[in-house]
Amino acid sequence: MSYASTPIDASPEALATVKYDEQGLVPAIVQEHGTGRVLMLAYMNPDSLAQTLATGRTWFWSRSRQEYWCKGETSGDRQYVREAYYDCDGDTLLFVVDQEGKGACHTGEYSCFFRSFGEPTAASAEG
After folding, report:
1. Cβ atoms of residues 119 and 96 within 8 Å
2. Closest CA to 52 of 88, 13, 94
3. Helix (H), strand (E) at residue 52
4. pLDDT per residue over 92-104, tens digit each?
5. What is the Cα–Cα distance from 62 to 54, expressed in whole angstroms?
6. Are 6 and 81 contacting, i.e. CB atoms less than 8 angstroms apart?
7. Which residue among 38, 58, 64, 80 is least enclosed by CB atoms within 10 Å?
8. Segments making up each domain of the chain, as ranges
9. Could you tell me whether strands 38-44 and 26-32 are parallel, antiparallel, or unpaired per DSSP bridges?
């Protein structure tokens, strides 16, 4: 399936609401359009947020490599933004995307959240 980029026109007031941490970053949750499945969490700075909104593709700041990266440029597993939100405190972003390719996780899994701490025990289910 092929997807098209959809730029998002954010107001200056909305962009001014975003609160970045001491490194100039804000966490960005990426959720799959249609299923609601959480695919990944990465970090954005003002430039990567602006690039994401302008291009309709997800751009992030790599804390380990200290560089910008556009999801899928090397893997082909691209993300196309459909909706963009910021939370009530302005300190977390949410992007609803169409996921192209094998998925979002660099390990080859579809979602980065594929590991579970386990099933609840009977004792914890009681209360």
Report:
1. no
2. 94
3. helix 46-55
4. 999 999 999 999 9
5. 19
6. yes
7. 64
8. 29-99
9. antiparallel
Taking all residues of the chain, what is their mean pLDDT, rounded to a whole number?
94
Query: What is the length of the chain?
Result: 127
pTM over 0.85? The answer is yes
Give residue for tokens 């933004």.
81
What single string gives the DSSP state of each residue in 3-24?
Answer: ---------HHHHHH----TTS
pLDDT over threshold 60, residue 125: no
DSSP state of 45: -
Q: What is the 3-state secondary structure (H, E, C) of 55-121?
A: HCECEEEECCCCEEEECCCCCCCCEEEEEEEECCCCCCEEEEEEECCCCCCCCCCCCCCCCCCCCCC
* Single-letter code of the amino acid located at 47: D
Fold of 29-99: Ubiquitin-like (UB roll) (3.10.20)
